[in-house]
């Protein structure tokens, strides 16, 4: 049975489980906001592939986004990721 405090975290781990999405996340500098053109330039993937991965990351809560003019800017949602990892670590601590 999945612990109730883990509810909502599976999407985060699914999103983080893909190497291409990990590379996209690692392309962000601390507190950096990037638009898709910048992310594509830092990637070996096509714009449509990057767009797909950004959707998965945003839908899981790993990335946040905001439209500014014609561009959509993305940034890492540290709070969501820290919360998910903390829940898992706290569960592990209670099992050992």
From TrEMBL:
Domain HTH arsR-type: 1-96
InterPro entries membership: ArsR-like_HTH, HTH_ArsR_DNA-bd_dom, HTH_MetalResp_TranReg, WH-like_DNA-bd_sf, WH_DNA-bd_sf
Gene3D superfamilies xref list: Winged helix-like DNA-binding domain superfamily/Winged helix DNA-binding domain
Keywords from the named record: DNA-binding, Transcription, Transcription regulation
Coiled coil: none
PROSITE patterns: HTH_ARSR_2
SUPFAM superfamilies found in the cross-reference section: Winged helix' DNA-binding domain
UniProt keyword Transmembrane helix present: no
PANTHER family noted in UniProt: TRANSCRIPTIONAL REGULATOR, ARSR FAMILY
Protein name: HTH arsR-type domain-containing protein
């Amino acid at each position: 049975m999945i612990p109730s405090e883990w509810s909502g975290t599976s999407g985060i781990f699914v999103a983080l489980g893909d190497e291409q999405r990990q590379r996209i996340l690692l392309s962000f500098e601390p507190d950096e906001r990037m638009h898709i053109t910048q992310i594509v330039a830092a990637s070996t993937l096509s714009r449509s592939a990057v767009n797909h991965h950004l959707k998965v990351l945003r839908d899981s809560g790993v990335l946040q986004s905001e439209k500014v003019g014609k561009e959509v800017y993305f940034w890492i949602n540290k709070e969501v990721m820290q919360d998910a990892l903390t829940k898992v670590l706290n569960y592990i601590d209670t099992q050992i």
